[in-house]
Amino acid sequence: MKLYDFKMAPNARRVRIFTAEKGIELETVTVDLAAREQMGDDFKAVNARMAVPTLELDDGTIITESVAICRYLDEIQPEPVLFGEGAKGKAIVEMWHRRCELEGQVACGDAVRNSIEFFKGRAVTGPTNFEQIPALAERGKQRIGWFFEMLDERLGDSPYIAGVDYSIADICALVAIDFAKAAKVRMSEDAVNLQRWYADVSARPSATA
Ligand SMILES: N[C@@H](CCC(=O)N[C@@H](CS)C(=O)NCC(=O)O)C(=O)O
To answer: Could you give the residue range(s) of every CATH 3.40.30.10 domain in the chain?
Structure first.
């Protein structure tokens, strides 16, 4: 099994943190996104959608999408539980994870990819070249602010985002918060619950993965 990876890519980081939490060691192959290696024929033959993370199984099966990769790894290494337990627990983790993806990660993608020079003409990952839309960057930044407020409120009631246990929702939110720095959006010092949680999850050894 090998993971096509790039250190600075937020979606790849989600998988690296997940595997670190699980204690899974994966062979990794760096696809240098800074050098646009994902657009070269060699990598396109692996993943025509030109994105990392991409997991290649020993039988040659290719799995793309960070959450699909995490789901696969979770099946082969169920402990520790990161997708919740039981009908209610799994649904609650899924609910918070989806919110962190849609309200956090996607907002960060809009803010970063529609503003910084490097993504000119490449505002969307994938085979189609899209121009930047500055208004989307502005809306993304505003949405990140709302996302941080929502998390701060939630974390006033709960040690972790989905409840008493660390989960994939925490991984997604941590990665989004660090990604938001590229759009110069940072958590407020007044968001004390969010700051407390951020210090906690950032201190886990997996956070450096
Ligand atoms: N929905 C995909 C998104 C993958 C994605 O956007 N990957 C980015 C890195 S974080 C990428 O490979 N970008 C290549 C590009 O910008 O051309 C997932 O969750 O894995």
So the answer is: 2-76
Cα angle for residues 60, 8, 69 (degrees, 5° grid): 35
Structure tokens, 12: 């790849």
* pLDDT, position 163: 98
The CATH 1.20.1050.10 domain(s) of the chain lie at 86-208
For residues 191 and 24, what is the distance between their CA atoms, to the nearest angstrom?
A: 34
List ligand 1's pocket residues with C-beta within 6 A.
9-12, 33, 38, 50-53, 65-66, 122, 125
> Which CATH architecture describes the domain 86-208?
Up-down Bundle (1.20)
What is the predicted pLDDT for the residue at 24?
97
Please report the pLDDT score of residue 108 as a whole number: 98
- Where does residue 131 fall: left (phi above 0), alpha (psi -120 to 50 degrees), or beta otherwise? beta
Give the position, in ligand 1's atom list, of the atom nearest the Cα of 9. Answer: 10
Low-confidence ranges of the chain (pLDDT < 70): none
| Fold entry, domain 2-76 | Glutaredoxin (3.40.30)
Instruction: Calculate how far, in angstroms, residue 64's C-alpha sits from the geometric centre of ligand 1.
Output: 9
Nearest CA to ligand 1 atom 1: 65
pLDDT value at position 186? 96
